[in-house]
Amino acid sequence: MLNFLIRRTVFMFIALWAVTLISFFIINLPEGDYVTAYIAQLQATGSMVDAEEADNLRKFYGLDRPLYIQYFKWMNQIFLDQNLGFSFEYNMPVTEVISERLLLTIVLAIACVIFIWVIAIPFGIISAVKQYSVWDYLFTFLGFVGLAIPDFMIALIAMYLFFVWFDFSPGGLFSPEYVGVPWSWGRVKDLIDHIWIPMVVLGTAGTASLMRITRANLLDELSKPYVITARAKGLSEWRLIMKYPVRLALNPAISLTAYILPYLISGSIIVGVVLSLPTVGPMLVKALVAQDMFLAGGIILLIGFMTVVGTFISDLLLLWVDPRIRLESGGS
Amino acid sequence: MVLSSIGKIFSKKSAPSNSADDVNTIDLATQRQLIWRRFKRHRLGFSASIIVLLFYVAVIFADFLSTAPPVDYAAARGYMPPQPIKFFENGHFMSTCEVTGERNMETFLMEFTENCEDTQGVSFFGKGYEYKLWGIIPTNRHILGMKDETKDPNAWIHLFGTDKQGRDVYSRTMHATRVSLTIGLVGVALSIVFGIFVGAISGYYGGLVDSILQRVIEIIRSVPTIPLYMGLSSAFPEDWTINQIYFMITIIISLFAWTDLARVIRGRFLAMKDEDFVTAARLNGAKTMRIVFVHMLPSFYSHIIAQASLSLPLMIVTETSLSFLGLGLRPPAVSYGVLLKDAQNVQSVANMPWLFIPAIAVILVILALNFMGDGIRDAADPYQEV
Amino acid sequence: MVTEKKNKNETLPLLEVRNLHTYFYTADGVVKAVDGVDLDVFPKKTLGIVGESGCGKSITTKSILRLIDRPGKILDGTMNLYDKNHENSQDITKLNNQELKQVRGGRISMIFQEPMTSFSPIHTVGNQITEAIKLHLKYEKNEAMELAEDWLIRVGMSNPKQRLKQYAFELSGGQRQRAMIAMALCTNPDILIADEPTTALDVTTQAQTLDLLNDLQEKNGMSIIMITHDLGVIAELADEVNVMYLGKVVESGTIHQVFKDPKHPYTQALLSSIPSLATGHRERLPILPGTIPHPQARPQGCPFNPRCKDFIDGTCNVEFPKQEQIEDGHLVNCHLYNK
After folding, report:
1. Is A309 on the interface with C (CB under 8 A)?
2. How large is the average pLDDT for residues C239-246?
3. What long-range pairs does A264-267 form, CB within 8 A, spacing at least 24?
4. pLDDT value at position C3?
5. Which of A98, B184, B323, C144 has a Cα-to-Cα distance from A57 of 20 to 30 A?
6. Is the pLDDT of residue B21 over 50?
7. How far is CA B156 from CA B88, B152, B172, in A?
8. Inter-chain contacts counted by CB atoms under 8 A, chains A and C
9. C-beta separation of B129 from B157 below 8 A
10. Count of B–C CB contacts within 8 Å?
11. CA-angle at B74, arms to B71 and B79, nearest 5°
């Protein structure tokens, strides 16, 4: 077990480091640098900056140094000062701009994972146990459709249907009176009221694949000898199904969650745009379009971190659940 | 696997073929024939592949199938509802009515009225705007054209209506099909090349090389792709041409998609490298590259095809999503994502639902590709774990 | 059709299976896995069921516990389970779910061929053994654990307390088999069905397991149904034997009757194919010509007729031979012995 734990932790740190590299790369991708953008912004408001001032600014920000030094400075800045840079669009430090949005993104992601688990696993179980029944075909078909249709399209369709049937435009995560207001129980309740549409829309694809995996794995397990042994012992059918093969089929489900997480986060960006959610997604799009690179890079960095850490947590979960890994049987 | 069970309800029973007499006559079938036979029995996958084929016909003949140039706009024709073709009226086999538009000064919406007394004939293979078929053959024939050649088809035929700027949605959908599906193909081709390469090396050499490559793949998989793609594509300089952007988008999309294929190939290689025929080849003095590509790889062409056909829809979705956000292909290029960008607004979709038709096309092609891919995968390797 | 069979000692059977038919309705046709099987299990005796792979012996015993899943179905037959005084009986084919669950693991237990996969990999051995105890004997957790430990000692397991807390993959092959036997017997069933229990074991472990089963049978007094394709195992453990071929019983009787004086050509072929160290000179092992026919292409009449050295055209390939009694308890289904 220790072996496994060490490997995963080391791996997580390497992945986090890779994320920082990638984010840094993206920040520096567009032509020009921080100072150019800054100058452009100043010029837009009417002030002029001459070449010498520009050079001084560059020296000040370390932009005249080679890239790898810039990278180190940036890393220092992030980890020691907790400073992600400055956003042009909002004229505020990046951390202030994104903090609430990041929180909501995390909340939405967790809500989605819960939703996926609550729906996909029972449906997958029923599908497998009652194979070839009407329910099986229905669930698998629905699941499949959910998998195939892109997230944003589901969002669009959902919006359309709501508009046509209920004459109501779903969007945002809060009612008007709770926007931009400090947290309170009322606000939390409002969030819960609103979150279920984005949660369902975003969770469809994940639900579909988890349902499929659960069903397939459970089908495999159901035909295994230990299930027959349990039945021969006189256990009642549902009880033995839940106790034995389901527990085993859960393991791949947990592993899958680790892979669903990046898709969830990706998807939440697009769905966030369509449904105008106050999550990081729409903000990232605008930042990229406006080439507000520190904001964009900061968001990408944080999203990447979230995903990697989330994957790691699901690895830990797997460790807790599967004794074979705990005891390093090598047979897992 | 799931779909093969759905497919089974459609497939017929096959009679048992052994009996004592047949023992001496053995039917031979190549691997390819067996796979093809299994695939045909999989009704769902097979019918899906026909749909996919139809879509690719549209890709090849996009120009021919359009009735109007996709970028030709006229504000006066904006937001026109679909014009159905009328059959057997006024002495014409096919015809359309004249439509005039007027702005309702209260709702500010255009209102269109049909005048069906004076219909204009429509013919197959009629004449329309000029173009070059496949870039070579200049012609002006389209699948539908006006009988009266003085009438501009762009003003008369609007099978799916028009968008805000008066552009024919049907023609744009045809062209979008071409663009979106070819990007997908090129992306898949690139990821196949890369995936095979990395997977083969990883699986064949094993050991440290394998460990490192696997870690790299895992890292790539744990990073959320869309923000990355968005970041990369937003960095395109303003002055790039449509084609350059097109090219770069393809590369970006394939950047992360090869990992799945690499994993599958690696698994197969690991299983296969200890087989006797590989050892025999090695003892014969064959070089590694030769062993890998000539001896081992051909055994899983079918897996490669299956995996590729399942990643194609993913690519299409990625491109569509990116363009939808405005960070992929941009106007005047036409792709599904670009078309759907216009349909982003709930109001517009509610009032002008025909703008949503490209969405139906996307859903259809993705579903068909997924079913087809599943069918191929079941036919090629029914024992594969999900 | 034999209605009531008594064995040589004139005791009455504990389990009486008559006319069992279990068919599988597959997409390619019907497979008649068990096609009219009778068997009797006597108290404290071991019945061996022997035959080639695919002859239906496993399905027969699974049918006894009604462990047949789609697309299989028990069509016909009765399976009467008597109590100790042979007074009351239940027909297993007619039990409802509640009653069936009591029989399974309670009155009749089963052990399987592969002990590794017969245990759940993620539950401890102790958990799985006490589960049966709690279910059938209604013990509390602590008492159940004690009983489980007791049984592990009885099956000759070292460190029983520790073993209870371990997982199946932490045990060796032989230990797993012992644990499985303990799990099956801890509820004191009347009949133990052993489905090829030694096939997956090496020879030494095999010998140990057989000794253990013999020993436990003497001490506990349960009956055993032993399925195997290994004639040596039958010779060592069984009192009575049924020979099966393609879903039908072709010969049955005591070990002495069947092994010393086999009547059915199939049994004769089986026994003569055992290599013997006794014969001094080397000669070719007689082999049984042909192979088991395709399940959907079963021969007409006696299923063995295409491979039979005593084949009688016009008779053997027309109808299935009736059961004939050679001597008391020794039955055979073969046209050669038609009276």
Report:
1. no
2. 91
3. A264/A109, A264/A112, A264/A113, A264/A202, A264/A203, A264/A206, A265/A105, A265/A109, A265/A303, A265/A306, A265/A307, A265/B224, A265/B226, A265/B227, A266/B224, A266/B225, A266/B226, A266/B227, A267/A151, A267/A202, A267/A205, A267/B226
4. 44
5. A98
6. no
7. 17, 7, 16
8. 73
9. no
10. 16
11. 95
Token pair 């729906």 is found at A119
> Strands, E, within chain C: which ranges?
15-26, 29-41, 46-50, 72-82, 89-91, 108-111, 191-195, 223-228, 240-245, 248-254, 323-327, 330-333
Radius of gyration, CA atoms only, chain C: 21
How far apart (Å, rounded) are the C-alpha atoms in residues C136 and C186?
A: 10
**Per-10-residue mean pLDDT, chain A, length 332:** 79 83 76 66 71 72 71 77 71 78 83 88 86 79 79 78 69 70 77 80 82 82 86 87 85 77 78 80 77 77 81 78 64 36
CB B124 within 8 A of CB B143: yes
Cα A310 to Cα A82, A88, A117, A190, C318: the distances in Å are: 21, 30, 15, 26, 71
Q: What sign for the dihedral angle of Cα B68, B74, B79, B82? A: negative
Contacts with A230 from chain C: Cβ below 8 Å: 120
Cα C26 to Cα C33: distance, rounded to the nearest angstrom: 12
CA quadruple B16, B20, B21, B27: dihedral sign:
positive
- Residues from chain B contacting residue A261 (CB–CB below 8 Å): 222
- Contact (CB<8Å) C131/A228: no
**A15, A29, A150 member nearest B222 (Cβ):** A15
Phi-psi region of C253 (alpha: psi -120 to 50; beta: other; left: phi over 0): left
Q: Can you give the pLDDT at residue C21?
A: 92
One-letter amino acid at C218 equals: E
- Looking at per-residue pLDDT, the higher value among A168 and C127 belongs to C127
* ipTM confidence score: 0.81
pLDDT digits (tens, 9 = 90+) for B185-218: 888 888 888 888 888 888 777 778 887 887 788 7
pLDDT tens-digit readout, B276-334: 887 888 788 777 777 777 777 777 777 777 777 778 888 888 888 888 877 777 777 88
Q: Which residues of C touch A254 (CB under 8 A)?
A: none
Angle made by CA atoms B234, B240, B244, in degrees to the nearest 5: 95
CA distance B241 to chain A (A): 17
Chains linked to A by 3 or more Cβ pairs within 8 Å: B, C
| B13, B14, B18: residue with CB nearest C297 | B18
CB C243 within 8 A of CB C303: no
- Tell me how far CA of residue B70 lies from CA of B183, B333, B335, C96, C235, in angstroms: 18, 9, 11, 70, 86
Average pLDDT along chain C: 85
- What pLDDT digit, counting tens, does each position of C62-81 carry? 999 998 887 888 888 888 88
Are B359 and B324 in contact, with CB atoms under 8 Å apart?
Answer: no
The alpha-carbon radius of gyration of chain B (Å, integer) is 26
C183 in contact with A at a CB cutoff of 8 Å?
yes
pLDDT class for B238, splitting at 50, 70, 90? low
User: Bridge-partner residues for C251, per DSSP?
Assistant: C243, C332
Cβ atoms C45, C242 nearer than 8 A: no
**Nearest-CA neighbor of A23 among A94, A117, A106?**
A94
CB-based contact C104 A225, cutoff 8 Å: no
* B224, closest residue in chain A (CA to CA): A262
